[in-house]
C-alpha cells in the first residue's frame, strides 16, 4: 500500500496528467479556438447539416434580402461564379441559421462582417469565431483575377488553390465575400465591402485570390454604411432578423 504522503502526490500527479491531456486536446484538436483572427466552433444552439443538393438550377437568377433591425440589404448572388458557396448561403438562409445573428465587426472604410451564430448571444466572447460545423471549398479562379506569379506562389505556399472553369470577379465596393480562416474553410460568416478601393490597395489585393465572392449589393447600401457607423462609432452590433432568398 502507498503511504499517505505518497498517495497524495500520486493523486496530484494523476490530476496534472488529466489537465495536460485536456489542455492539449483543446489547443490541437480545436485549432481555431484560440486564434482571434479566425473562427472556430458555434456554441449557440445545435449544428446544422450541410446541404445535400443544389437549391437552384443553372438558368435561375438568385437574389437575397438581408433584413436587419435598421433596414434591408438586397444582394444579387453569384450563383454562376460560386455555385457551391451560394448554395450554402441559400441553405443557411432558408433554414433560419442567420436569424437572430448580428453584423458584429467593421473595419473602417473597408468592410462589415456578420453571419456568426455565436453573435445570438451579444455577450459571448466567441463572437467572430463560430462556424456551422462543416466547410465549403473555395471557388476562386486565379486566371480570372490576373494574379501575378508572386501572388500565386504566396497563396500556393499557404495552401490555397485556383479553381478552374469559373469566372471569378475582382472584389470592389458593395461586393459580398465569404470569410474564412484559411484555405477551404468557408462556412457561414460573410463580409460586405463598404468603400471604393484603389486597384493597388493592399487590403483589396489581400482579398483577391484568397476569399470567394458570392454576390453584390444592388439596393440598401445606405444600410450597409449605417451598420459600419453603428459598430465603429457606438460599438453596437446590428441584428439580422432573417435572410430571404428570391429565385
UniProtKB/TrEMBL annotation:
Isomerase as UniProt keyword = yes
Reactions mediated catalytically: [protein]-peptidylproline (omega=180) = [protein]-peptidylproline (omega=0)
Entry EC no(s): 5.2.1.8
- Record's keyword terms, sorted: Isomerase, Membrane, Rotamase, Transmembrane, Transmembrane helix
Q: Where are the transmembrane segments?
A: 7-30
Q: What Gene3D superfamilies does the database record attribute to this sequence?
A: Cyclophilin-like
Q: What class of enzyme is it?
A: isomerase
Source organism superkingdom: Bacteria
Tagged with keyword Isomerase: yes
Q: Which residues form the PPIase cyclophilin-type domain?
A: 68-247
Q: Which family does the UniProt entry place this protein in? A: Belongs to the cyclophilin-type PPIase family.
Which PANTHER family does the entry mention?
A: PEPTIDYL-PROLYL CIS-TRANS ISOMERASE-RELATED, PEPTIDYLPROLYL ISOMERASE DOMAIN AND WD REPEAT-CONTAINING PROTEIN 1
Biological function: PPIases accelerate the folding of proteins. It catalyzes the cis-trans isomerization of proline imidic peptide bonds in oligopeptides.
Name the UniProt record assigns to this protein = Peptidyl-prolyl cis-trans isomerase
Organism of this sequence: Candidatus Dojkabacteria bacterium
